[in-house]
Structures are given as C-alpha cells and as structure tokens.
Amino acid sequence: MMRNKFSSWFVAIVTLLLLVAPVYAGFAGEPFALTFVSRILIFALAAISLNLILGYGGMVSFGHALYMGLGAYVVGVLAQHDVTNGWVQLGVTLAACAVIGLITGAVSLRTSGIAFIMITLAFAQMFYYLFVSLKQYGGDDGLPISARSEFGLFSLGSPVVLYYVALALVLVALVGTKRLVDARFGMVLRGCRINERRMKAMGFPTLRYKLSAYVLSSMLCGLAGLLYANLTGFASPAYLAWTVSGELIIMVVLGGMGTVFGPLVGAITLLVSEEILKAMTDHWPMILGPLIVLVVLTARRGLYGYLLDWDAWRERRGLAAAELLSTKERS
Fold first, then answer.
1. What is the model's pTM?
2. Which residue, 168, 191, 244, 319, has most beta carbons within 10 Å?
3. How far from 81 is each of 12, 84, 146, CA to CA, in Å?
4. pLDDT confidence of 322, banded at 50, 70, 90?
C-alpha cells in the first residue's frame, strides 16, 4: 500500500536528492550550492524542533530562535577560549539549552494563547540584548569563530562532513519525531493541543508532558545552532532575533504544521524561493509574502499536506470502488 502513496515517493526522492547533493556540487564546481543546501538542512532541523511543540502541542513559540543562537554562541565562546572539542561543545550546548528551556518553559507554559507567545518572545529578546552587551564576545558586531568543532574522527571544518552530519541529524530527527508522536507521549501532547482540560480530567499531568516536549525541542534547536555556527564561522545576536523565530514558524506552517516531513519541505520551499526571487528583483518580499499567504489559505496542512490529502482521497476512492465491486459480486 505504501508503495503507491505519492507522499512516500516524494519523501524517498527528496532524501535521495539530499544524499547526492555534495556529489553534484563537487562535479559542478559549485561550493555555494553545498553551503546553501547545508543551510537548508540546518534550518530544517530547527523547524523540526519547533514543529514538535507548535504542530503537535499547539504551543506557538515566537522566541524559538533563542536556542539556535544559544547553540551558536556556545561554539563561539568556547572556541574563543581554545576549547574546540566538539563533544564538549555538544554537551555544553545540550545542557545549556535544556536548563534554559526548563526555566523559560516552566514560566511560559503556565500561560496560553497570546500570553505564551509574548513571554517566549520576551525571553528571546532578553538573551538577544544580553549577547549584544557582551563586548568581550563581539557585542552587536558578533563573534568570529576561527576554529571549527573537532570530533576526533571528523571535523565540522570540512563542508562535506558538516553537510552529512546535518543531513544525518535531520533524518534522525524526522524518524524520532515519527516514533515520538505515535507513542503515548505524542498522543498526550496532541490531546493537550485539542482539549487540555479534558486531558487533565483524564488524569494526565499535562504540564509535565508539555514541558518535556518544550525542553526536548529546545535541545534539538540548540544542535541546529551549533551546526550553523560551524557553517558560517560566526555567532551573532541576529541569530536570536524575533525575525528568525518568525522564519521558523513560516517554515513549519508552509511545509505542513503537525506533519513529520512538513518542516523539511517548508525549509526547502522558503529558502529556495528566497534565492530565486532575490535573483529576479530587489523587491522579492512583496512577491514571496502573497505566495505564502496563498499556500496557507488553500492548504490546510501546508504543501506536504497536499500530498497527504491526495493520498487520503485516493485511498477513500479505492475503498469505495472495492466496496462497489463487492456489492456487485454479491448481487
């Protein structure tokens, strides 16, 4: 049955293209292409982390870029002090994002709706201005990173290695998201989005589930920040800006909020569209904006949702045809 689903074929084709992208970039002599697709994968990883709480938990975090910026600054600050061991940077990134995610989540999740949105935005802005004020680490100008993360057997200083590490993390995050949302944890999380009061009445500790998802999402986004710092060789307060959080939300909604593969589709669509439109006109936002609005208005579950809805329609049609045939045979 799965072999006939367009969504499954689409996932397989996109995955194959991503696997061979470095080969094409090498033969074509296009290093920018490899850097660009690496950027797509990194933002896709951040969008996947946001989709966990936004798409499945209904938590609209407008400050999710906080954790992406935090991961970047962990790499930059440690490299500034000659700590380039990637495992150390990874451990510090995960620990820092977990602690800050736990603290900010514990405060934010006691609210809902517009209050939750504004509190997450406020926390992100607090850290934004904190890094702006740290003049010893570049302040508003940002922090150049001279040495990339070293993991012993491999180094993120190699563009190809960085690309495949990012791709591996994206694939693991997609599989992990699928398994998580299909498990009891994911079902409770989705139940909280639909009717949290009913979930509480059934005896589920909803705050604990939502906070766990928020912390996990924060750590995953921190990994995206670590990779982004190695890609750009720079850590900047701009990584924590509310505009970056807005872009992540757009990626999730555009690709398919509450779908496993949607955030990757959204990241590819948004960033590729930006590059194409930038080459055409300096006023590209005036074209991209209405296109995004059009997709949001016409696609209930984003671009990837189109394929899922099409597969669902074909399945219903097939069942109806089988039932009709069975009725004719009985008559």
1. 0.91
2. 244
3. 43, 9, 11
4. low
